[in-house]
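Ticket #4471: structure output looks truncated?

Reporter: J.K.
Steps to reproduce: submitted the chain below (361 residues) through the standard prediction queue, then opened the result file.
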Amino acid sequence: MSVVIVLDGAARNRFTVTVSPFAELAACLHVLTEHAHHPGRAAWAREVTGSAPPAFRAGLHRFAPLWTALRWRGFYPGLDTTAPPGHGTPLAALPLDRFAELTAYTCASGYHGFAFGRVLHDPAQAAALLRIASGLAEPHPRLAEDLLRDPLALRADVAAFVDLCRRVFFDALWADTEPLLALAAHRVRQRLADEGPAAALLSLSPSTARVTGRAGGGPERVVLDKVHHAVVSPARTPVVLIPTLYGAPHLLVKNEPGLTPVVHFPVEAPDVGVTLARSRMLALTDPRRVRLCRLIARQAMTTADLAARLAMTRPQVSRHLRVLRDLGLVRVERNGRYVHYGLDLAAVERIGRDVAVALQY
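Returned output as attached by the reporter:
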């Protein structure tokens, strides 16, 4: 699956690069809820939750569907409110029906195939929401019930929790984080001006993005390797690009119907995408290649030595080494007229971590 951004007819001014404290708050809350996704932030998460008041920990659990699998659209700019551009959406400015619709999507953990625009007024939509949410783990079903029972109270509770987040940790964090995000936004903005949309978009995800079309025929497109499919056309709808520090390694594409598309990208994108991570795993499923790797893990060896020890021909050994070199798993050492091959143990040690990161990107 992939997210396709069609660039034909999309001028540079169809892209806005900005920072958003609401979007970064959502990323932080995701880290606090999903520790396993962010081992590098685990100590920070334990510190925040350990010293936080009970009301914060309760809210972190109760409202978790708003920032776990499907990030709540209320955290992002582009809604029909009076919020300042680029600064998210104050809950007080979010109409109740829109709040209910967007919250229903998160309770259902998806928006394709669902219609919740009248979930507060249409019994069929309300019944569908309860049915879908009941198939998910708590607190999804309970949040859906709270929404339908008293949406005004739920909106007030979410607003109170956001305010509590500011006092508990986010105001101090944003003071340190905002300058870094502003610098990242400036770099992307500069690349957009100097090199154009394709180069700017590729820089957001160098390990998983690619450009298609033009030379090969068809419209120019940037394709992002994602778990869902979507087509975004900036020529028709402007796109907002928002950097995140605490959201890494995730790159999110928010493309809800009728709303401004948003790409929430990590300041530092992962070096290894899902395709390379998968290829590295597959390369080590071949028994002959595994035997070869066991030998060169101990010491660097020549093709001739490997062929003799493995009862293979030199061309066969060369083919296996070429596969491993192309995947970045083998290092080459030249000593006079000899070429020695050694296993890059650091790259092999990272395979598990790279797979986990790539699957989340």
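Triage note (M.O.): checked the attachment and the full token line is present. Residues 81-87 have pLDDT under 50 and may be disordered.
Status: closed, working as intended.
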